[in-house]
Design goal:
The protein is 43% helix and 18% strand. It has 544 residues and is an alpha/beta fold. The chain folds into 3 domains: 117 residues, no CATH class; 150 residues, FAD/NAD(P)-binding domain; 197 residues, FAD/NAD(P)-binding domain (3-Layer(bba) Sandwich). The strands form 7 sheets. Strands 5-2-1-9-20 form a 5-stranded parallel β-sheet, covered by helices on one side. A 5-stranded parallel β-sheet has the order 11-18-12-13-14. The longest helix has 27 residues. It is elongated and about 120 Å long. This is NAD(P)/FAD-dependent oxidoreductase. Its EC number is 1.6.5.-. It is an enzyme of class 1 (oxidoreductase).
């Protein structure tokens, strides 16, 4: 109820009681009328903007009557007659009838005000539909955007925010290699999405399609069937999927590294290969089982081959029949050196460290086909193996193709050109940088892209202009196994044990909760003392 409406109701409510008292006491009409209007105005002020109950209205009226008796009867009325006000007990007792009249006046006014507010409720203000912001994808970028918008909702942003993901947890992908190599428990590298959202909503489902003309997203939500989710602003943060380039057999036989399930399957495959090799009488098949090929020599492939090498050699003593045999590890990389993301010096350092342990390199080569028993390179070389891990290529999520043919190049603000209300970030989009290239698809960039797109959306909803995303990167680190690492931080190259300590410290600090940090720290501490766990968590007969 507005202030003006309350004042009006207060004056109207005071008139019946004021008239009744005037009939009984016959005071001067003009001062009494002004007094009654003032009493009603005070009543309206005291009632506030919320509707009161009958009892509350009666109590407020009595309070106003008491205040009226003190201010009018004991103070103003004597002053108007040229007398000095007095508040002694004797004077107060002498004006007891006026006290009864004031209380009666206040009570009648309070009840009348209540009756008026019930009989004539304020007309509800027209409800403006809040804009709906939908974020598709529960990775670093999507969750980062949702949490930033969630924070702004708590500070008054007028909107609805919904995060849609087919996983109800945020996966800390940089530590997936630890899951595959048995240094980190799988559950410790994921954090529940809902726990980080206080105002935004979460919808567990897979977005099947997006209609950018009608601004609707269609979500497969299990038994609920297909749900239509209308939106005003939509953020595509669906990431990338492995790209096998339609190479014969690669999609069927290669192990990707995109999810906890992928990492667990690869771990089971490696440990299962050791189990089968321990029983295999044929030396050729035994060698095939003990050969592990990793396609791709970037960050993911280099870290993976190093950690799998450590895993196998750390647990090999559990398999006495394999004593004297040497497991074989091969990296196949299309470039002329490992780790093109780093400087040539650090790339050579990494290759020297890994090569010194017996890891083989096939540089300037590509996998051309794969079977259950071997892989073939484009040079014609065949490598007998039962295990091919694939980190050699990614492509945007197929959902992106519904928006426009990839690559999806967005504006520096992360708005999709030509499609109002659509934004994209992370691995599924190309975001221009200041140097004329594109921001790399790393976790540190995705996190900041998510926050930046949330700020831009909040700005657009408030009628302001979005700003271009700018981030130069904090540095890069890559684990090389054997408690060594390499990287570049602030333009300075680091390598060896110090870089390994930095690698673990940085990733530990970036985990999404204190609980997960403590759990991963416990995993790493146990790994320093005890051998790695060789228990197969699931049965995977695909390569048996």
């Amino acid at each position: 109820m507005t202030l003006l409406r309350r004042l009006f109701f207060g004056v109207i409510a005071a008139l019946p009681g004021g008239a009744l008292v005037a009939v009984v006491t016959k005071p001067p009409w003009l001062p009494w009328a002004a007094h009654t209007v003032a009493l009603g105005a005070v009543l309206g002020l005291l009632f506030g903007g919320q509707r009161q109950s009958t009892g509350s209205a009666f109590s407020v009226g009595l309070l106003v009557g008491l205040l009226d008796w003190v201010t009018w009867t004991l103070t103003l009325a004597p002053a108007l007659e040229g007398q000095k006000p007095s508040w002694t007990i004797t004077v107060a007792v002498s004006h007891f009838p006026e006290l009864v009249g004031a209380a009666l006046l206040g009570a009648i006014a309070g009840l009348s005000f209540h009756a008026l507010s019930v009989r004539f409720p304020p007309r509800p203000a027209p409800q403006r539909a809040k804009p709906h912001v939908v974020i598709v994808g529960g990775g670093f970028g999507g969750v980062g955007a949702a949490r930033e918008l969630d924070r702004r909702l708590g500070r008054g942003l007028d909107a609805h925010v919904t995060l849609i993901s087919d996983s109800n947890f945020l996966l800390f992908t940089p530590l997936l290699v630890g899951v595959a190599s048995s240094t980190v428990e799988a559950r410790h590298v994921s954090a529940p999405v809902r726990a980080g959202l206080g105002h935004a909503s979460f919808l567990h489902g897979r977005v099947a399609s997006i209609d950018t003309q009608t601004r609707n997203a269609y979500v497969c939500a299990g038994k609920e069937g297909m749900l239509r989710v209308p939106y005003d602003q939509l953020v595509l943060a669906v990431g990338a999927v492995p790209h096998f380039f339609d190479l014969p057999g690669v999609g069927e036989h290669a192990f990707a590294m995109k999810s906890v399930e992928d990492a667990t399957k690869l771990r089971n495959q490696v440990l299962g290969a050791l189990e089968r090799a321990d029983l295999e009488p044929d030396p050729a098949e035994q060698a095939r089982l003990l050969t592990f090929v990793i396609a791709g020599g970037g960050f993911a492939g280099t870290e993976l081959v190093a950690e799998l090498f450590d895993l196998v050699h750390d647990v090999l003593h559990f398999y006495p029949r394999l004593h004297g045999l040497r497991p074989r590890f091969v990296i196949v990389h299309a470039g002329d050196r490992l780790l093109p993301e780093l400087s040539p010096q650090l790339g050579r350092y990494a290759q020297r460290k890994l090569g010194g342990r017996g890891i083989e390199f096939r540089l300037g080569a590509r996998v051309s086909m794969a079977t259950a028993e071997d892989i073939t390179l484009d040079s014609g070389e065949t490598i007998p193996t039962r295990t091919l891990a694939w980190t050699a290529g990614n492509r945007p999520n197929p959902l992106v193709q519904q928006v426009m043919p990839p690559p999806l190049t967005v504006q520096p603000t992360m708005q999709v050109p030509g499609i109002p209300g659509l934004w994209a970030l992370g691995d599924c989009a190309r975001i221009p940088d200041l140097a004329g290239g594109f921001h790399p698809p790393t976790a540190q960039h995705a996190i900041r892209e998510g926050k930046a797109v949330a700020k831009n959306i909040a700005a657009v909803l408030r009628g302001r202009r979005p700003v271009a995303f700018r981030f130069g990167g904090l540095g890069v680190l890559v684990s090389l196994g054997h408690r060594t690492a390499a990287g570049e931080i602030g333009g300075r190259r680091v390598s060896g044990f110090l870089a390994w300590v930095l690698w673990r410290s940085v990733y530990l600090s970036k985990l999404p909760s204190v609980e997960k940090r403590l759990r991963v720290l416990a995993d790493w501490t146990l790994d320093l003392v005890f051998p790695r766990d060789i228990a197969l968590s699931t049965k995977d007969d695909r390569h048996a």
